[in-house]
Amino acid sequence: MKSDKELHLYGQDLLELLCAVLSKGAGFRFQAKGFSMSPFIKDGDVITISPVKGTVSQIVPFIHPEGKNLRVHRIVWKTRGKFLIKGDHCNESDGLIPEENILGHVEKIERNGKNIRFGLGKERHLIAWLSRKRILNIMLFLGRLLIPSFIRRRIL
Predict the structure, then answer these.
(1) What fold does the segment set 11-155 form as a domain?
(2) Which of 39, 112, 113, 148 is deepest in the core (most CB within 10 A)?
(3) What residues form DSSP beta bridges with 96?
(4) How far apart are the C-alpha atoms of 76 and 55, rounded to whole Å?
(5) Is the sign of the CA dihedral 73, 97, 8, 29 positive or negative?
(6) What's the per-residue H, E or C state across 87-131?
(7) Cα-Cα-Cα-Cα dihedral of 46, 106, 33, 115, to 10°?
């Protein structure tokens, strides 16, 4: 059911509003689209962005330097003042992203009206390391093969 208070924005419009709200020091809440962060953020989850810049292992909204588009992925490493950012469900990274392109960090994930903490707590450090080493995708693939779907739905 859609609320009268919902505003549907995409692309550049969403990015501009996000930047404007975060620049005022306020949080920003919107519905995630896509599968690049699955299973930690799924298509349709509602995420809340804090204006506080993210650090290694946190999930961050950022402006990709090439396409100037908004992405929400995990910081997996920091080197030479730039951040290596990668979607948890992606084979390749987004490359080294300058700190000024990072807009904040994901502080809350909601799925079907329930808060999801897995992927935002201390385990995020292990997830970032596994992602950087390209082990996470293999584990997720094997998990889908070996763990029955009814158990996966309860876990993630």
Answers:
(1) Umud Fragment, subunit A (2.10.109)
(2) 39
(3) 84
(4) 9
(5) positive
(6) CCCCCCCCEEEEHHHECCEEEEEEECCEEECCCCCCCHHHHHHHH
(7) -30
49: left (phi over 0), alpha (psi -120 to 50) or beta: beta
| Angstrom distance (rounded) from CA 92 to CA 134 | 9
pLDDT tens for the chain, residues 1 to 156: 455 677 777 889 999 999 999 999 999 999 999 999 999 999 999 999 999 999 999 999 999 999 889 999 999 999 998 999 999 999 999 999 999 999 999 999 999 999 998 878 899 999 999 999 989 988 888 877 877 665 656 555
Q: What is the rounded distance in angstroms from the CA atom of residue 31 to the CA atom of residue 9?
A: 10
* CA 58, 66, 27, 35 torsion-angle sign: negative
Look at the block and give the residue holding tokens 């920003």.
Answer: 28
Q: pTM for this structure?
A: 0.86
pLDDT at 144: 76
